[in-house]
Amino acid sequence: MPIDPETLRQAAKATKVLRVPQQSLSTFGTTTISYYLVTVPVYTELTGESEETVVRRGRVTAERPQIVTPYYLLSMFRGFEHGEEYAGHLMESYGRNSPGLMYSYKNELQETTIVSDPVKTVARRLADDLEQQGERMAAVIQGVDFLWDVSLMKFIFELTVSSVGQNVTELAQSGMLGMDEGLPRAARARIDGMFTAVKRGELHPSELKAELDRWGVFPQYEDRFLDLFRKRR
User: Fold this and answer.
1) Nearest-CA neighbor of 179 among 103, 26, 69?
2) Which of 20, 96, 116, 126 has the lowest tally of Cβ within 10 angstroms?
3) What are the sequence ranges of the domains in the chain?
4) pTM beyond 0.85
5) Nearest CA to 60 among 151, 129, 134?
6) Is residue 4 helix, strand or coil?
7) What ranges in 72-184 are assigned the alpha helix state H?
8) Which candidate, 155, 161, 158, 157, places its Cα nearest to that of 56?
């Protein structure tokens, strides 16, 4: 069911991150964050005070940040009426091959329970328990029940923003933001890794082909790509 922008904005505004992970998103690998998202049950939100709390426990996996360019984004705005025009605007504003970072996430909701205590009490108890257990990569979020996923996405967005500076610095220090014949070095390395994964049977060739097309470099890799099939005969 569609949600009007004002309702979504209010849900995001009401979200509070009560405990943040004690580490930024990893620059060169995946990051797994456990979360406890507490809400007042939707059936009592209109009445205010409640002696019950909904606790959603899950985890979010943030994939390794991927370096992209405005040209790469041409194929990423599928389903957007003006996606191609916007990607063209980015190319005009920043240059066809200006590197940037793209983050992707996977959410896994593991458990939902109802606790017979007020939401603030439950949140404080969860945060204290995580501190005592030394859980570095765990968060406690107080959100809105019927839009709890919006609350979770707000947390993810804020964590991403706080991590970008460190990620960019580490990528620059490693030389991965540099260009190699019109392609970011990190993209070259990713493509090489995908070729290896296809050879091992860990990745379908169509995914590699799609990545080459997104970068517009299939002609550069065509012989190498076709060799993957010649060697299988």
Assistant:
1) 69
2) 116
3) 5-65+103-174, 178-233
4) no
5) 151
6) coil
7) 83-94, 119-133, 148-173
8) 155
Rounded Cα distance, 86 and 88, in Å: 5
Do you know the residue count of the chain? Answer: 233
Dist. CA 118–CA 122, nearest whole Å: 6
Give the span between the Cα atoms of 205 and 24, in whole angstroms: 33
Q: Do residues 67 and 184 lie in contact, with contact meaning Cβ atoms separated by under 8 Å?
A: yes
Report the chain's C-alpha Rg in angstroms: 22
H or E element: which one contains 173? helix 148-173
Q: List the structure tokens of 208.
A: 């590699």
Give 14-59 pLDDT, tens digit per residue: 999 999 999 999 999 999 999 999 999 987 755 556 689 999 999 9
pLDDT digits (tens, 9 = 90+) for 196-233: 999 999 999 999 999 999 899 999 999 999 999 875 55
Whether the CB-CB separation of 24 and 167 falls below 8 Å is answered with yes
